Amino acid sequence: MKRTLFRKIWDAHLVADGGEGQSLLWVDLHLVHEVTSPQAFESLRAAGRPVRRTDLTVATMDHNVPTTEGPITDPLAKQQLDALRTNCEEFGVRLFATGSGREGIVHVIGPELGLSQPGMTIVCGDSHTSTHGAVGALAFGIGTSEVEHVLATQTLPQFRPRTMQVEFVGALPFGLTAKDMVLAAIGELGVAGGQGHVLEYTGEAIRGLSMEGRMTVCNMSIEAGARAGLIAPDETTLSYLSGRPAFVESDWSDLHTDDGAEYDAVRAVDVSRLAPQVTWGTNPGMVAPIDAVVPDPAEYDEDDARAAVERALRYMDLTPGTPLRDIRIDKVFIGSCTNARIEDLRAAARVAEGRRVAEGVHAIVVPGSAEVKRQAEDEGLREVFERAGFEWRRAGCSMCLGMNPDILQPGERCASTSNRNFEGRQGAGGRTHLLSPAMAAAAAVAGRFADVRELA
Amino acid sequence: MRPLRSVTGAVAVLDRPDVDTDQIIPKQFLKRIERAGYGEFLFFDWMKDPDFELHRTPDAAILLAGRNFGCGSSREHAAWALEDRGFRAVLAPSFGDIFRQNAINSGLAPVAVPPEWLAQLKDAVAARNELTVDLETLRITHPDGLELAFDFDAHAQETLVNGLDDVARTLQREDEIAAFEATYARRFDLARIP
């Protein structure tokens, strides 16, 4: 039988095959962080159950760690981090704690440490687990009850998702990035377009991306509603993973979709004339090219779509017809599991070099991991950012979701390299616009959205 | 988990698409390490608006929502908050995949209803605000006579109706898991990380 890449990984992990019904799936790697795990460990403790495979379970601290120097001051955040430490000690789970030098955003350290590898199943109590699909793994987010289930059994009951090929057609123009590709794809698919599906990204533009870029694309699969995103491994994958600490060589030769294998759905996204993307609304599908204007709700035919756009513009305090380039910003956030890898920081630094953050704009750069931070400092990127007036922080999730002190104040407008522009996501009343790291740096120096291609 | 055979009660109508879990329970409430007590923070920011739809039916047990309800973040706290607030069922044309599973695991029934039923259900509860969602017979009924049969996955039905714990059920399959595990090699080596 000709099979898709997804189906090959799925079939190889079936503890019990439920066919169209519920199957039991083996989990190769379970990533754990402080926010979605305490109740799971507590339930294990109450039931007297151990963690079944501590050698397949890895924890880190990321969501609510402070990114400034000094001790944690938020008592609730501290309690949660302390709980993770205690739980990991009690259950024998390896923890990369703050200060260990290996900590970072869970979806940055997985591939970085060589934990995430092609053909694996990877889960984590975090929706952006889809990131790891970039190495050719089936990786998806789960809830806390499922975290408990995986801790106790190393398996997960699952219905087989459907498959969708998302083919990027054409060559990516100069100055465009993975973030622009995935934002454009979400704009076309819609925020529920991938529901129930695993997306396999294909096409020349995907093959041309670095691993960091592929992670950015797969990361935002969940923003199209998809269960996971997936990219077949190739030479780029091998050269990225080779030599990483936990890497174990294996045979990937069959890890691709067979010629003639059928997907349940196929979508094409033309990137040959793509322009840098900026979101204007309150979900990632509300996106437009930088040379566009804020849309008019009257252009939407469906009642509920029109109402949603009206509501989004009210929340974002935007007037239809306003050029995106005329929108002024207060803050810039370069970071998150979407865009805080070394390549992202290099791209932003290239724009920042020799320029200054605009008057009245507060810009922060938060590396995705302690390792990314070290590497960026070794390459001199920290100096570039600091000379330009950006603040250089310690690793963590930071202002992507604002569980730590890095938040927007009500009414503040932020150019953000993160993944969600939901109402209040970065702080109650805050207004988030998603874009690429280069575009975020361009916005920081211009004080408004700007086309990074014109700064080059 | 509390069994959920059937729920009868008032319906809150939240007629907008793509309600994400960040709205259902904002991040500042995810720092707690307990599983209970999230109900008072449900829709925390939207509740500040006196015109917010949910204020109209403070004692609702059933939520009627738009498509793609519960999209976004995997936080199970969203399902816990709804359940803690007194909701036992959410009716919507579609759900975020992770939320749907979280709801089932939290004793909250995520019932997918065809979009064309929404208007019918809204009209019915506008006339008299009461519905019954029966998880045993898989029927939604309104006291004025409206009766709709819905589809629901059999495993999820069993979980909800009996208040079952998925972990305990899977642990009974130890033979199958051990058999798989015996033939399956680890794909990475954590011990190599200094």
Helical proportion of chain B, percent range: 25-40%
CA-CA gap between termini of chain B: 41 Å
Query: What's the total helix number of chain A?
Result: 14
**Helix count from the secondary structure assignment of chain B:** 8
The general outline of chain A is: globular
Q: Specify the helix fraction band of chain A.
A: 25-40%
Assembly classification: heterodimer
What strand order characterises the main sheet of chain B?
1-6-7-8
Largest sheet of chain B: 4 strands, antiparallel
Q: How large is the share of residues in beta strands of chain A?
A: 15-25%
Distance between the termini of chain A: 50 Å
Mean pLDDT of chain B: 96
Q: Based on DSSP secondary structure assignment, what is the total number of beta strands of chain A?
A: 19
Radius of gyration of chain A: 21 Å
Round the Cα radius of gyration of chain B to an integer and report it: 19 Å
Overall domain count of chain B: 1
Number of strands of chain B: 8
Structural class assignment of chain B: alpha/beta
Judging from the principal axes of the Cα atoms, what is the shape of chain B? globular
Corresponding CATH superfamily of chain B:
Aconitase, domain 4
CATH names the topology of chain B as Aconitase, domain 4
Write the layout of secondary structure elements.
The complex is a heterodimer of chains A (about 450) and B (about 190).
Chain A: H1 5-12, E1 14-16, E2 22-26, E3 29-32, H2 38-47, E4 57-60, H3 75-91, E5 94-96, H4 106-112, E6 121-124, E7 138-141, H5 144-153, E8 155-159, E9 162-169, H6 178-189, E10 197-202, H7 204-207, H8 211-219, E11 228-230, H9 235-241, E12 265-270, E13 277-279, E14 287-289, H10 303-316, E15 331-334, H11 342-352, E16 362-365, H12 370-378, H13 381-388, E17 391-392, E18 413-416, E19 431-434, H14 437-446
Parallel strand pairs in A: 3-4, 3-6, 4-5, 6-7, 9-10, 9-12, 10-11, 15-16, 15-18, 16-17, 18-19
Antiparallel strand pairs in A: 1-2, 2-8, 13-14
Helix pairs in contact in A: 2-5, 6-8, 11-13, 11-14
Chain B: E1 6-9, E2 11-14, H1 21-24, H2 44-47, E3 62-65, H3 77-84, E4 89-92, H4 97-105, E5 109-112, H5 115-127, E6 131-134, E7 139-141, E8 147-149, H6 154-162, H7 166-171, H8 174-183
Parallel strand pairs in B: 2-3, 3-4, 4-5
Antiparallel strand pairs in B: 1-6, 6-7, 7-8
